[in-house]
Amino acid sequence: MLFFWNFRCLLLYIILVELNIDNVISIWPSSNSSDVYLLGIFYYTPNVSNSGESAIHARAMFKSAIMLSNQYNITVDGKLIGWREELTSGNVIDALSGTCLSVSQSNIIGIVGPALSRETLLISPLCEKLGLPVISYSATDPDLSDITTYPNFYRTVPSDNTAASALVKLFYRFNWTSCLIIYQNDAFGSGGARAINDVFNASGIRVVQMIVYDIAKTSIRGNLKTYLKNSLTRIVILWAESIYTSLILKDALDSNLVGPHFTWIISSMISFNYFDKKYDQNLIGMLLIESVVGSVVNAPYNIELLNAAYNIWQKYDNETYPGSTNVDYYALFAFDATWALIKSLEELCSSKINNSSSCLSFDQTSFCFDFHFNQYDLLLSILARTNFLGVSGSMRFSKNTTDRINGSYYSLKNVQSSANDLNFVFVLEYAGSENWRIPVTESIIKWPGNSLTPPADGAILRGVNLRVGIIPITPFTIVQNVTASNGQITIQYIGYMPDLTQLLTNQIGFNATLILIPLNQTYLQIIQLVNEGFCDIIVGDVTVTALRRQLVGFSNPIFDNSLRLIVRKTSDRSIDLLAFIKPFSRKLWMLALFTCIYAGILMCLVERADNEDLQNRPIISQLILSIWYCFGNIVGYGVEFNARTAAGRFLTAGLYILSLILVASYTANLASDLTIAKSQFVISGIDDIKNGKIQMNRIGIRVGTASEEYFKTEISGESKDYYPLRSRQQLYDSLLAGIIDVALSDSGIAEYATSSIYCNLTLVGNDFDRGAFGIVTRKQWIYAQDLDVGILSLKESGKLDNLRQKWFQAQHCSDSTITTTAIEIEATGGLFITFAITTLISLLLFLWAKRYNIKNYLPQFIRKNESSTTRPHSFTN
């Protein structure tokens, strides 16, 4: 059984080496003469250039570090350190077995790698059992930061927890508040996605959706196009290895999901040669966030050590050396991981220099699980104190975490086009806990669509084709036939809503196709058309109500609306000359007259003997003067004489009290009657309907409208005993025919109809149930925010007000809604006629009183005129 296991491991190792023997096998000197070895575990996929190059560079720098230690004569028990290497293809069991094979065949004292997080999660616990420290140069899973779970593990690459914090600050920089995450379903992908999600949620950034990419099936779980097209965000974070990043992007490009409407942030370098050249414009604007070394962000690093390593690489494998500026950053992390182990081993053995025993000892066996490095604990304590300036920056470990304490840097690269090729351009840098900053060599960011303006994180309508449903209601949408010069007839839409749609297309940039909605359905049926796919949005006179919001979505208001009452105009009322006496009933007038006469008689009785003004007069004169006294006091005017007796004064007080009440009551009732007299209509407002002044079956309500909802809720108590109307035309016809007396209608349409079309209809009362029209969309429509911003921009610029004035201010009928507070002459004509009669009677009384003088004066006047006509004229020369 043991033979079979070792044979299987050896066979696997040979196969992995043979995967790319022409490119991987080089002329590095053999290290078989060494007694102790460091094992390098590298992830190599020959079909993906980035992964292959990264593995080649990492292996070269791993060997360069060991060769450099040999040059520096760093020995362990007097022996130079050698190396063993293992190439993995991503299969964790293969990586585990390959490690087991190497340990069983050689004295392994430390491991550099593995490259993948999913391999590290198994190999690190295995090596803990074997007593071997593990330092990874590219495993970023946040779970690996737990020193308690992985006490023998360290890493030189920053954890994805640090990457998540850097992403938060990147989102802050560009005012993004949401994103969508696509991740591969392994430790690297799920760990990174979880870290980003946790940090984003704590920072107020919403992760709308997390999409899984199955690396076994090499496909998205679900439909990527459906996910992204229906997503509320347009920022996509892709957390996957290079090979899977390329596969995902290819599918996204084929579905038109990469630029210009989506901004992608990837975590792994890709090769543009993998994609068709026709997609170059779509790839422009994509961002790459990757961990980098200190030299990239102008942080301190060990340039002498780096140059020495490069010299060794060029000496032994010059064909794979890409130049100092093109070395993969993970290769430098691999060098520092190797150098940290070498320096720790050097310190371990230097502490044993005075001890005759060997500084290294092993429990060796052919079965790898029984292997154990005896100085494991001492070596780990030395590793925890690691502190040197490495080729990637400052290298320092701690006993509290597996992550490097400092030296965590990131770069943001932007896909741009130059000389017909695509390149990653370095645009921003991130050093430690600082904010993102512009590098020394500044480059502008080209966003998707070759824009220089950072995109919004939400879905935008620019360039999107929308089917816009419109409702043929004048003047919101007017359908007219236009005859061209060639005689061809085309349909043209004009009105408030078509003009609004055009303003929105100009403002936002979407493409609109107008679709006329038939009127043979209710508004509840009309709004359902967006859910049925008949159109994308509906731009019409649709009032936003609670019931409708349960079914569809609505935009910001596009038209302020309310309800109005429409009635027929009535003919002028007949003139009532006696309107001024109507405040009191006939009986009350008779009672007031009788009271005045009675008080006059009583006043004459108590005052005639003592009041000088009544003395020396005939009894009739005394009685009339007493009645006049009472009348003057009742109406509040007073007279020319005063009461002289106590009884007379007391009676006068009673007259004052009577005057106070009668005059005030008369004035109030007269004012009310005159106000009512000015109204020409059967009702004055909605309160009259609520108070039952009109029979329910004389009130017209359009079925399926917001006015019906209001009427049933506020007035009829869900009763449907009103007169149902099926269309606006039926509403107008029913009013004109006298079938109904009043109808409820939207204010905008009602004002237009009564001022421009139906001049014999008018509006009464104030508006009520104020609301607004909104554009109908599907619920949680992804473009809702962009549409709302466009509408608000039009409103703030005054264009909506201009549009309303254009279509609703035209007036071809007299404005019957304008009322005056002035009292017309007809209302008080009878009062003036009464006064004229009074003046005539006064004149007659005057003539009657002067009848004797007139009788004597008239003959004299006649004789005088006759004598003047017979007298001769004299002329003077």
From TrEMBL:
It is a multi-pass membrane protein. This is Ionotropic glutamate receptor C-terminal domain-containing protein. The keyword Membrane applies. The lineage of its organism: Eukaryota, Metazoa, Spiralia, Gnathifera, Rotifera. Residues 1-26 form the signal peptide. Residues 465-810 form the Ionotropic glutamate receptor C-terminal domain. InterPro entries: ANF_lig-bd_rcpt (IPR001828), GPCR_3 (IPR000337), Ionotropic_Glu_rcpt (IPR015683), Iontro_rcpt_C (IPR001320), Peripla_BP_I (IPR028082). It comes from Rotaria sordida. SUPFAM superfamilies: Periplasmic binding protein-like I, Periplasmic binding protein-like II.
